[in-house]
Design a protein that fits this description.
The protein has 213 residues and is mostly helical. It has one domain (6-209). The chain has helices spanning 6-14, 25-41, 45-72, 94-108, 124-146, 162-181, 185-209; strands at residues 78-80, 87-89, 92-93, 118-119, 122-123, 149-151. The strands form three sheets. Strands 1-6 form a two-stranded antiparallel ribbon. Strands 2-3 form a two-stranded antiparallel ribbon. Strand 4 and strand 5 (122-123) form a beta hairpin. Helix 3 (45-72) packs parallel to helix 7 (185-209). The longest helix has 28 residues, at 45-72. It starts with 5 loop residues before the first helix and ends with a helix.
Length: 213
C-alpha cells in the first residue's frame, strides 16, 4: 500500500507467511488446551463458556480492525509487527490469539461468588470489567513503546485511550461476565453460540468469500 505507514506494509509483508512459523506455538497451544481441559474436567461450564465468549468477541473486533485497513487503504485501528509464530491478521498474532483464548477464563476466576456484591459501592463485575480493561490498555501502552504495536488514527491511541478501554477490551470482559452470570446453562450456550457464530460467519464471509481479510 503506497500511502500506508511503514508498519502497515510490514504487517502485510508477514501476513500468514508460513516461513514465520516457530515451534514456540506448540507449547502455547498446549497451555490453552490444558486450561480448557481443567475447566471441563471440573464441569465449570460458566467459566469455560465465558472464555469462549471473550475469545469470540475478540475475533469479531479483529475482523472489524482488518476491514478498517481494507477500506481506508492506510492502516488498521491497531497493527502488530515483529517476530511472531504466525501473523493471522494485521492486528492479530498467533500468540495474542492464544492469550485471548484463555483471558476470559483468567478474568472470571477473580469473580466473588456473590454476583451482587458491591465493592466501594460499585457492583463487583463492573469494577472488574473496568479494572481489567484499564490494565489491558496499560499493557498495550508498554507494547506500543517497544515498537511492535502500532496505532495510526487520532481517536485510538495513547493520547485518547478511552475508546480502547471501552471497545478494545471492555466489550470482551463484559461479554465474559455476562455469559458467566447467566442463570442457566442453556442461556450461556445460546449467547456463546451466537457470539461464536457471528465470529465464524464474519471470518468466512470477509475472508475466503470476499477476500477482504
Amino acid at each position: 500500500m503506497p500511502d500506508a505507514p511503514a508498519f502497515t506494509n510490514e504487517a502485510l509483508r508477514i501476513l500468514r507467511d508460513p516461513t514465520m512459523f516457530s515451534w514456540t506455538a506448540i507449547p502455547l497451544f498446549g497451555i490453552v488446551v490444558y486450561v480448557y481441559a481443567v475447566e471441563i474436567e471440573k464441569r465449570n461450564w460458566s467459566t469455560t463458556l465465558a472464555g469462549l465468549a471473550f475469545w469470540s468477541v475478540d475475533w469479531i473486533n479483529e475482523v472489524v480492525n482488518t476491514l478498517v485497513l481494507r477500506f481506508s487503504g492506510k492502516a488498521a485501528i491497531w497493527t502488530t509487527t515483529g517476530h511472531t509464530s504466525f501473523q493471522i491478521l494485521p492486528g492479530l498474532t498467533l500468540e495474542i490469539a492464544f492469550l485471548f483464548a484463555i483471558a476470559g477464563i483468567i478474568f472470571t476466576k477473580q469473580f466473588p461468588k456473590d454476583p451482587k456484591l458491591r465493592v466501594l459501592g460499585i457492583p463487583n463485575r463492573w469494577l472488574l470489567v473496568v479494572g481489567y480493561s484499564c490494565f489491558s490498555v496499560f499493557v498495550e501502552l508498554l507494547l506500543h513503546r517497544t515498537g511492535s504495536f502500532h496505532w495510526y488514527w487520532p481517536w485510538w491511541n495513547e493520547h485518547n485511550p478511552w475508546l480502547i478501554v471501552v471497545f478494545g477490551y471492555g466489550t470482551f470482559y463484559a461479554a465474559a461476565a455476562w455469559v458467566h452470570d447467566l442463570p442457566t446453562l442453556g442461556a450461556k450456550l445460546r449467547v456463546t453460540g451466537a457470539l461464536a457464530g457471528t465470529a465464524v460467519a464474519a471470518i468466512v464471509v470477509f475472508g475466503p468469500v470476499l477476500g477482504w481479510l
